[in-house]
C-alpha cells in the first residue's frame, strides 16, 4: 500500500518491508527542504510491523545532491534562502539545519534495519542520505562524492559520523576535503558498500538481503543492532556488560520468564 506520495518522495509498505523512493528522476532526485520534510514524514508514518526500510532512487541516479536552486538568491519558493539563513540568529540557523537533519536521522532507529539501494550518482546530500542507512547495496556504476567542502560549506546532514565510522578519520577527511568520486570497486573495498552488484541485479540483491534479515527473530535483530550501534562509544568492559544484559533479556524472553 502507498502511504505517502508528495514532494518527490513515495512510501509504500508491503508486509514487513517499507520502500521509500526518491521519485524526481528528471532532476536526478536532487533534494530540497520540501523533500526533506517528506522524508521525515515517511519515517513517522511507518507501521510498527515494518522491519526493513529500503531507500531507493528512480532513474539513473540515486541522488545528485542538493538542488542547485538552493544556491540562487531567491532559493526555493516559501523556503529561507542560504542568504536568509546566514542573516538569521545562531539559534534560528541551528533550528533550521536541525529540522533538515530529521530526514536523515530516523533510518538508524533500532526497531528496523535500513538499506540504501544506490546507483549512479550519490553526491553531497545524496551521499549523506545513503550514509544515513544501516547498509548500502550499490550498483557497479555508483559514484559517491562529498562536494560540500568544495562549495565552501561542510557536510551537515548527519553524514560525517557514519562516514568516519565506516572508513576512518583520515580517509573520511581526504574524501570530504577533495570532493573526489569514490567508485564502486573502492566503495566495496573500504566498507562504504556492503555489496556491489551489476545494475540490473540491484533490486534483486536488495530483496535477497531484506529476506535474509527478516529470517532472524525480530527482537534478536533489534537487540543486536542496539548492541553494535553502542559499541563505538563504550569501552571493552562496558561492552561486555552490555552483551551480558542483552543476552539475559533474550534468554528470559525465549524461556518465557519475566524480569
How would you briefly describe this protein structure?
The protein has 259 residues and is of the alpha/beta class.
Topology (elements, then pairings):
Layout: E1 2-6, E2 9-14, E3 17-22, H1 33-45, E4 52-57, H2 82-87, H3 90-105, E5 113-118, E6 121-123, H4 125-132, E7 135-139, E8 143-145, H5 160-167, H6 169-178, E9 182-183, H7 184-190, E10 195-197, H8 202-215, H9 218-231, H10 236-255
Parallel strand pairs: 3-4, 4-5, 5-7, 6-8, 7-10
Antiparallel strand pairs: 1-2, 2-3, 8-9
Helix pairs in contact: 1-3, 5-6, 9-10
What does this molecule look like?
It is a single chain. By secondary structure, this protein is α/β, with parallel strands linked by helices. It is 45% helix and 17% strand. The protein has 10 helices and 10 strands. It has helices spanning 33-45, 82-87, 90-105, 125-132, 160-167, 169-178, 184-190, 202-215, 218-231, 236-255; strands at residues 2-6, 9-14, 17-22, 52-57, 113-118, 121-123, 135-139, 143-145, 182-183, 195-197. The strands form 2 sheets. The protein has a 7-stranded mixed sheet, with helices on both faces. Helix 1 crosses helix 3 (90-105) and helix 5 packs across helix 6. It is globular and about 65 Å long. The two termini are 38 Å apart. The mean pLDDT is 95.
Amino acid at each position: 500500500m502507498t502511504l505517502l506520495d508528495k514532494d518527490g518522495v513515495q512510501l509504500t509498505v508491503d508486509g514487513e518491508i517499507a520502500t521509500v523512493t526518491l521519485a524526481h528522476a528528471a532532476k536526478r532526485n536532487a533534494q530540497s527542504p520540501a523533500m526533506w520534510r517528506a522524508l521525515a514524514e515517511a519515517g513517522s508514518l511507518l507501521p510498527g510491523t515494518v522491519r526493513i526500510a529500503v531507500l531507493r532512487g528512480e532513474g539513473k541516479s540515486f541522488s545528485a545532491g542538493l538542488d542547485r536552486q538552493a544556491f540562487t538568491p531567491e532559493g526555493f519558493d516559501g523556503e529561507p534562502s542560504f542568504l536568509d539563513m546566514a542573516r538569521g540568529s545562531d539559534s534560528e540557523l541551528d533550528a533550521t539545519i536541525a529540522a533538515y537533519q530529521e530526514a536523515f536521522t530516523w533510518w538508524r532507529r533500532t526497531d528496523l534495519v535500513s538499506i540504501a539501494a544506490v546507483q549512479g550518482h550519490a553526491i553531497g546530500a545524496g551521499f549523506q542520505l545513503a550514509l544515513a542507512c544501516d547498509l548500502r547495496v550499490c550498483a557497479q556504476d555508483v559514484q559517491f562524492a562529498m562536494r560540500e567542502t568544495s562549495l565552501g560549506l561542510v557536510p551537515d546532514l548527519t553524514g560525517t559520523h557514519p562516514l568516519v565510522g565506516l572508513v576512518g578519520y583520515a580517509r573520511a577527511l581526504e574524501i570530504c576535503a577533495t570532493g573526489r568520486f569514490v567508485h564502486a570497486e573502492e566503495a566495496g573495498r573500504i566498507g562504504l558498500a556492503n555489496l556491489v552488484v551489476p545494475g540490473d541485479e540491484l533490486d534483486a540483491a536488495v530483496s535477497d538481503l531484506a529476506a535474509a534479515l527478516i529470517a532472524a527473530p525480530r527482537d534478536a535483530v533489534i537487540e543486536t543492532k542496539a548492541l553494535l550501534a553502542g559499541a563505538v562509544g563504550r569501552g571493552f568492559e562496558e561492552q561486555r556488560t552490555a552483551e551480558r544484559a542483552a543476552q539475559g533479556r533474550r534468554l528470559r524472553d525465549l524461556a518465557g520468564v519475566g524480569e
